[in-house]
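Please fill in the sequence for the structure shown.

STRUCTURE ENCODING:
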């Protein structure tokens, strides 16, 4: 019985992916909720935004689009700053800017020291509202992701 269940799950995973189509308009137009949790004595500031669009919304044949888009928000510059300027603004205090892409959501996260709150907040808002998506940076990120994928497959025993 257990073997037949495992076999059915395995066969279902090998089947063709069904294109989910575009994100439903009512879901995309849902208002943004803001949650503020003040911690007066904390040395760090944590900013996070969660978008209801993850890898399950990638079109068939264009898998990885959500990851590439999210990576470009963080690593391809934002607003008036290019990718190098964003890294230079975050680096001195050890601030971290990252994305996590799930199946149904994408999370943009920034941790910075409270002394850098003004710069970090500006960078975070620019990444959300005014991403640059410079072609050279997006191609660089795509090549990095392809290399990670292929190297991961060839080096994993």
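FILLED IN BY: designer on duty
SEQUENCE:
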């Amino acid at each position: 019985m257990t073997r037949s269940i495992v076999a059915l799950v395995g066969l279902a995973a090998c089947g063709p992916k069904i294109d989910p189509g575009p994100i439903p308009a009512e879901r995309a137009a849902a208002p943004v909720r803001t949650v503020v949790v003040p911690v007066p004595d904390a040395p760090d500031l944590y900013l996070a935004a969660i978008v209801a669009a993850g890898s399950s919304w990638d079109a068939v044949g264009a898998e990885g689009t959500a990851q590439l888009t999210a990576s470009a928000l963080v690593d391809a510059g934002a607003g008036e700053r290019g990718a190098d300027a964003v890294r230079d603004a975050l680096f001195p205090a050890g601030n971290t800017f990252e994305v996590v892409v799930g199946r149904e959501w994408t999370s943009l996260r920034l941790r910075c020291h409270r002394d850098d709150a003004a710069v970090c907040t500006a960078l975070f808002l620019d990444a959300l509202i005014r991403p640059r998506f410079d072609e050279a940076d997006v191609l660089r990120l795509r090549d990095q992701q392809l290399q990670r994928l292929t190297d991961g497959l060839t080096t994993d025993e």
